[in-house]
Write a structure and sequence with these properties.
Strand content: 35-45%
Order of helices and strands: EEEEEEEEEEEEEEE
Shape: globular
Largest sheet: 4 strands, antiparallel
Helix content: under 10%
Structural class: mainly beta
Strand order of the largest sheet: 1-2-3-4
Radius of gyration: 15 Å
Length: 184
């Protein structure tokens, strides 16, 4: 019931970036919100009967800022990406992750642009992250190590969403195109 979900803040909403703002794993449902007044991570451990919401440390302050994309390896291991959709090249805190179900967040110390889609790479502590937006403009693809706070950047030709097929292969999607990417 909606009455059990914590009240939204003014201007808070879940963005529809890359169809990756919602995760379900067994009885755990998780989704993210963003907006001018900050971002939150919503979690239910009993199929939506009860909910909690934690603040996510990610860029905010304007209507199109905040958490845009998330991925959950399981109910505890979560990555969230986002930033400023109106200023994709603004380098700031656009990536964070949790290893305890969203109770504590670990900010990735790298200054990254807006991230439209983030995915955990299986069997690793690495994240695949895409920067770009459907209306075009600059874009990049990153393989980010949470252990070393380091990244490898690749040109992405404005791919804005991805799906992980294995620990060595991802599928990338953009406006009118699809590609495979061998994960190094």
């Amino acid at each position: 019931p909606c009455s059990r979900i914590p009240k939204t803040k003014e201007g808070e909403a879940p963005f529809a970036a890359s169809n990756s703002n919602l995760a379900w794993n067994n009885n755990h449902i998780q989704f993210i919100s963003g907006g001018k007044n900050g971002s939150r991570f919503y979690h239910s451990s009993n199929n939506g009967q009860n909910w909690s919401a934690q603040v996510v440390p990610i860029q905010s302050g304007a209507a199109m800022t905040g958490a845009f994309s998330m991925d959950a390896q399981d109910s505890n291991t979560i990555v969230i990406g986002g930033g400023n959709w109106d200023s994709v090249l603004n380098l700031t805190n656009t990536l964070t992750y949790s290893l305890d179900g969203g109770q504590n967040w670990n900010e990735v110390e790298l200054q990254l642009p807006y991230l439209s889609c983030v995915k955990w790479i299986p069997n690793s502590t690495r994240i695949l992250a895409l920067s770009g937006r459907a209306k075009g403009g600059p874009s990049s693809l990153f393989v980010i190590s949470t252990d070393a706070n380091s990244s490898i950047e690749f040109e992405s030709d404005n791919y804005i969403s991805c799906s992980i097929a294995s620990d060595t292969l991802a599928w990338l999607g953009g406006t009118g195109k699809i590609a495979s990417f061998r994960i190094p």
